[in-house]
Amino acid sequence: MPGDLRETHVAKVARDSGPFEQGTRSDRRHQVMDPWALDIFAAMLTMDTFDAKGRKALVRVDLNVPQDAAGHVTDDTRAKAILPTVRKLINDGGSVILMSHLGRPKGRIVASMSLEPVADHLAVLLGMPVQFASDCIGPDARAKAAALKPGEVLLLENLRFHPEEEAGDEAFSKALSELGDVYVNDAFGTAHRAHASTTVIAKFFPEDKLFGYLMQAEIDSVGKVLDDPERPLVAIVGGSKVSSKLAVLENLIAKCDALIIGGGMANTFIKARGGEVGAGLVEEDLLDTARTVMEKATARNVAVHLPIDVVVADAFNASANTDVCAADQVPDEWMALDIGPESIQAFRDVVLDARTILWNGPMGVFEMAPFQQGTIAMARAVAEATDKGAFSLVGGGDSVAAVNQFGLAGRISHVSTGGGAMLEYLEGRVLPGIAAIQGHG
Ligand code: AMP
Description:
Helices cover 34% and strands 16% of the residues.
C-alpha cells in the first residue's frame, strides 16, 4: 500500500534485534544482514493497489505438489492456493510467468520431477490453457515469455534442475528476472531460503516487486499474533522435541500471556520440574534449558500450562496397551503419547478465553488413532474460540496436518502453508524472501 508507513513485522524485528545472524543453514548465502540496509518505511506495492495491465508478472509460487507414479497430482492444495494471485494478475490484463520448484532434484534434470504435468493440472483449475517452457531459463523460456500476451499464463520447468537456484546464483537470478517486468513472490514455504528465485532475483526489480495474496496473508497473520495481538494471546506448542522449538518458545514467552506445552516435548519440562516420565521421550541435555524457559515465563507473568494427566502406552505403536495416569507419575517402561482428559479440559478452558491463538505442534502422536484425542480436542477448542471471534493461526507442519485431517481448517483464521518457514518466522527471524521484497535489496 503506497504511502503506508505502518511498521511491518520484518522492520520491527530488524529494529528490535540490531545486526543479526541470518541463520545457520548452509544454503543461506546472505549470512549477515544489516537491518538498517532495509528501507523500513518503503512504500510498497500490494496486490490490491498494483495494476498488472500490460505487465509481465514473474511469479514465484509453490507448486511442489505430491504426484503419483504417472505424474497425476494427488493433492492440489498448493496449486489452488495460488489461484487468487494468478487470477488477479490476469483479470487486470497482465500476463503471468510462473516459476516453482518440485521435489529435490539436486541441480539435475530428473524426469519424474518435471512440472509439465502440473501445468496441465493448473490449466484445469484455472479453466484456461497454461503454456509450458521446457527449461526455466534459456531460449525456450525467453521465446515463450516474450510471446506471452495479456491474459496468458506460462509455467517454467522446475527451477531446481539448475544448481544455481539453491545456490542463489546471481547470473541465474538475472536470467530469470529478464523474463518478466514485475516480480511477485507468493511462495511462503520457501521464504526462509535465500535462493535465486525467492530472494536474489528481487534486486533486479528495485521498485516493481510485491507479495502475492498468499504470502501477504501469512505475513499479516504472523503480524496479528506477534506484533499487535488482541489479548490474551495464548500459544500452544507441541510436537516431539524441545530442541526444534526452543527458539520459538523463547520468542513466544516474550509476547504471550499463556503458554500451553503438550506433545512429547512436555516430558522434558515435566522431568525438569522433578516429575517421573517413564520411558517417554526426554531430552536430558535440555532439562536446565527447560527450567530456564519456565523461570523466564514466570518472571514475565506468562502462565505455563503443562499436561496434568497423560495417555500412556507400553509400546510406541497403535496396538499397545494404554492407560491414563498423572503426567508426573508415569511408570517405568510406559510412555506418554497423548495428553489425558483432565489436561484437555484445562487446556480447553485457557484456549476458550483467548482472543489470539497460535498453535504449533500436536499434543500427542496423532498419527495413531489411540493417541489423537488431545490433538483433536485442541483443534476443536481453537476452532470454537475462533467461532467466538478470536484470531487463530495454526502454523508449522504437523498441527496444520492435524486441522486438515480433522476437517477443521475452515474454522481457523489462518492455516499456514509454510512449515519450516513459519517455524523460523515464529522464532522472530527475518526471512530472506520477505526482506527481499520489503527492503530495497
Ligand atoms: P514436530 O515435528 O516437532 O512438530 O513433532 C511432530 C511429531 O511429534 C508428530 O509426528 C507426533 O507424532 C510427535 N509426537 C507428539 N507427541 C509425542 C509424544 N508424546 N511422544 C512422541 N512423539 C510425539
